[in-house]
Amino acid sequence: MSNERIDVTKNIYDENDRIAAETRQVFDQKSVFAVNVMGAPGAGKTSSIIQLINNLPQIRSYVLEGDIESDIDTVKMKSLGIETRQINTYGACHLDAPTVLKAATDLSLAEPGLLFIENIGNLVCPAEFMIGEHIKLLICSVAEGSDKPYKYPLAFEKAQMILLTKIDLKSYVDFDDAFFGKGVQALNKTAAVFEVNARTGDGFAAAARHIEELARRARS
Amino acid sequence: MSNERIDVTKNIYDENDRIAAETRQVFDQKSVFAVNVMGAPGAGKTSSIIQLINNLPQIRSYVLEGDIESDIDTVKMKSLGIETRQINTYGACHLDAPTVLKAATDLSLAEPGLLFIENIGNLVCPAEFMIGEHIKLLICSVAEGSDKPYKYPLAFEKAQMILLTKIDLKSYVDFDDAFFGKGVQALNKTAAVFEVNARTGDGFAAAARHIEELARRARS
Questions:
Q1: Contact B173 A172 (CB under 8 A)
Q2: Is B150 at the interface with chain A, CB within 8 A?
Q3: 3-state secondary structure of A119
Q4: Phi and psi torsions of B190, nearest 5°
Q5: Distance from CA of B38 to the nearest CA of A (A)
Q6: Which of A57, A35, A218, A36 is nearest to A114 (CA)?
Q7: B152 interfaces chain A, CB cutoff of 8 Å
Q8: What are the φ and ψ backbone dihedral angles of A147, each rounded to 5 degrees?
């Protein structure tokens, strides 16, 4: 890699981190706990956010939907009465802090609560960019296979919380619990892992309580 | 985006394309038909490559395995007697032409045949970089959902061939065939789509014949 490229890349990360800190301040001032929802395409990010919101009826929730193109998920969120704004990156493979800050100012954030920021479906690049979040929530489906921590370590390393989704498919896809668990443990000793099924809602009550607890700790 | 960043990005693409053309020449000289295998994490890229190779016993096959970390898939390929080299990118979210050219020189390419280059599991970035391939083969699992063409259009647009994998899970995940098909058609009128199941091998005989036909056309 050329020195020129290294310099430009470093500048991009530094500038992003500066604006991420600024964005986080905006959320703190509004008492909004921001969750950066990361995961591969089709991991179940949108369905999981809906389940978490349904399990926290006492808390006001907001959503930013990141997608390269389309507003399919925003339409779904709005149909459920959730205040949501779409971010389309038109090619970019992750959300960055300037984009999130701009979109967040378009949300009311009228009451304290939770903001779910659904990142671009990508198990690689989003983990490299802070976007003003309080925690990173990694969504990983059993259909992706149990070797994902070994192949995509950064996302697993940086997550404060992990949802293992589509557990109803476990027996059909030969998912190896022990191998997956060992891979996660090697990278991350503190993230809580919840097994969930967004079709039935199984597991989301406990996951929702954990987010509420993490938000409480962040305020105190 | 700053002008400095645009210039550097343009230089990266231009330099990549130049080396991709050089890499393609190496493959052509060896009469090796190169397949850039793209897809999200856990889409079934490795299993599909193995099935395709098994269905083409009369053709010599080579594999380059792209992963951020780990050599899990290379170990699997080698255990099946397939000449394979591992590429680890240690962070980079896609393969690029210089990396592939370097790794390819480490393969014997002793006989004419097929080279499967398994890209990093990522439905976004790999589609932007040519790596000397003759065709791009997109692998997409029904577990990812039927909205993928709408959300990740570039990969679907650029593919010469698409495998829809894990079709045994179709009834469990409410996969909408018509919606998926409409999305693919809007982006790509020429790519052949094959429904496959890597657990049973269903569908791979036809897919393998199609690759053989594409390779024959490339030589003539």
A1: no
A2: yes
A3: coil
A4: -110, -20
A5: 13
A6: A35
A7: yes
A8: -95, 5
User: Is the interface score ipTM higher than 0.95?
Assistant: no
Calculate the CA B123 to chain-centre distance: 11
Band (B3; pLDDT cuts 50, 70, 90): low
Provide, as residue numbers in chain B, all residues whose Cβ is less than 8 Å from the Cβ of A120: 124
Q: How many whole angstroms separate alpha carbon B99 and alpha carbon B126?
A: 13
Does the CB of A122 have a partner CB in chain B at under 8 Å?
yes
Q: Which residue has the tokens 């020129």?
A: A4
- Two tokens at A198? 């967004």
B108 near A CB under 8 A? no
The answer for A67, left when phi > 0, alpha when psi is -120 to 50, beta otherwise, is beta
Residue B135 tokens read as 């065709």
- Distance (Å, whole) CA B138 – CA B155: 7
Cβ–Cβ < 8 Å for B167, B142? yes
- Tally of helices (H runs) and strands (E runs) in chain A: 8, 7
Q: What is the pTM of this model?
A: 0.94
3-state helix, strand, coil in chain B (%, to 5): 45, 20, 30
- Residue A136 neighbours by CB under 8 Å, 6+ apart: A35, A36, A38, A127, A155, A158, A159, A160, A161
